[in-house]
Design brief:
426 residues; alpha/beta; Pectate Lyase C-like; Elongation Factor Tu (Ef-tu), domain 3; five-stranded mixed sheet; 24% strand
Length: 426
């Protein structure tokens, strides 16, 4: 029987907050009373007065969440698009693939301006097509994908390989929420208004050259270019000339909550997270499109089918030549292999092309030290414990785990030059 791992998605909370690739799950609106974070004391500390360039700024993330946590996540009643009903007829038995049927219901809800795509109790097989990057795609606002409960509705992903290093970004996934390209943080703006003062604090009030383009409730992007000067100041000179690889801009999506033409300022709902300077072309942008909003994933579980191949079988970790035996396993998992004696234990432990660290658990500490010194083929060995690194001891491995050492006296030698002087007697 194939093992299935299900991730419970009682995801009323997932509808709370997303901002990436043109996606905004919640919109903010003007406040009747001034906002103050509960993370800061009432007196003695004003986070918006701190400076990014000289102070230790404690970022205030209490603004995150659906409508900044000021209202509960709504329970949308409808209209309802039941995926098992006509014209969709998704199979809830888990026998036939239901990807196309569920996607058709999602598309119908999106085209109608929003609605609840309901998955009654059952198991729905979904898969990622060879020419796609996701099994299910939501790209219209107001769409809620809802199940009958995390213990009753299951999405079973049957695509066993989602990591695709040979494919361009984005990577493959089961459900993707995607807004329009024109709403990306780096998209060309339809209107750009320069800021008139360097923004060096977690500010909400932004001085601008002209307030005419802005209205209450508008979604704006406050951004500045990633210039070589910026990379140099932040101690990252290796990125100079490569801003395009990082997204071109340092940008923050915000909502306008006040416009003051007399003071020539725009107030946004959430403080900035980093300094934006006029030198780097800091400006407030109105993009050609708004991100999608009010998206919800609620009350279902997601699972993936186990890979059907033979190279990761239940006993492969005991067989030389299999990846589970030969390769390093990074994650909350360990291979346990029974051996007959100390000699076989050392043979199995050393039967690897890697050799960074090893360990011995034993009541006979003297014997363990002897094995570590004379037999264990790794750069570091811990006995009856585990220490990642000690600054006074060399850190490094052998074989395919690399060359050289960090820390301690041996580590110091990596930073000096050794000079050879030879004298030949005539």
């Amino acid at each position: 029987m194939r093992r299935l791992a299900f991730l419970a998605m009682s995801l009323r909370t997932l509808a709370a907050f997303f901002v990436f690739a043109g996606l905004l799950i919640s919109r903010s609106v003007a406040l009747d009373t001034p906002w103050r974070s509960e993370l800061y004391p009432e007196q003695g500390w004003n986070p918006e007065a701190a400076r990014f360039d000289r102070d230790k700024v404690v970022q205030d993330f209490s603004y995150a969440g659906y409508r900044r946590g000021e209202v509960p996540i709504p329970r949308i009643a409808g209209p309802v698009y039941a995926v098992t009903s006509a014209p969709y007829l998704a199979d809830p038995s888990g026998e036939r693939d239901a990807t196309a049927a569920i996607q058709a219901a999602i598309n119908a809800a999106g085209e109608a301006g929003g609605g609840v795509v309901f998955l009654p109790a059952g198991t729905y097989r979904v898969s990622v097509a060879s020419d796609a990057n996701e099994a299910l795609l939501i790209e219209r606002p107001g769409v809620i994908l809802r199940g009958a409960g995390t213990e009753r509705t299951f999405l079973l992903n049957t695509t066993t390989v989602l990591r695709t290093p040979d494919r361009p970004s984005p990577s493959r996934t089961v459900i993707r929420v995607r807004g329009p390209f024109e709403a990306k943080l780096s998209a060309p703006a339809r209107t750009e208004t320069p800021v008139t003062t360097d923004l060096v604090s977690p500010a909400r009030v932004i001085p601008v050259a002209d307030t005419k383009p802005f209205q209450l409730g508008q979604i704006v992007v406050v951004r500045a270019a990633l210039t070589d000067e910026w990379f140099r100041e932040t101690g990252e000179p290796r990125w100079m000339g490569q801003a395009s690889a990082l997204g071109t801009y340092l940008a923050f999506r915000r909502t306008v909550v006040a416009v003051d033409p007399a003071a020539s300022t725009v107030t946004v709902d959430v403080p900035l997270r980093y300094a934006l300077l006029r030198r780097d072309g800091a400006h407030v942008a109105l993009l050609p499109a708004d991100p999608v909003a009010e998206i919800g994933l609620e009350d279902f579980s997601i699972g993936s089918i186990e890979h059907p191949g033979t190279e990761w079988g239940n006993r492969d970790f005991m067989q030389p030549g299999m990846p589970a035996y030969d390769d390093e396993l990074f994650g909350p998992v360990a291979s346990i292999i029974r051996v007959a004696d100390d000699e076989e234990a050392m043979r199995v432990a050393n039967d690897s092309r890697f050799g960074l660290g090893g360990g011995i658990i034993s009541k006979n500490v003297d014997k363990a030290i002897e094995m570590a010194v004379n037999e264990f083929d790794t750069g570091m060995i811990n006995i009856n414990g585990y220490n990642l690194a000690n600054p006074h001891l060399p850190f490094g491995g052998v074989k395919d785990s690399g060359y050289g050492r960090e820390h301690g006296g041996f580590g110091m030698k990596e930073f000096v030059n050794v000079k050879s002087v030879q004298v030949t007697d005539s």
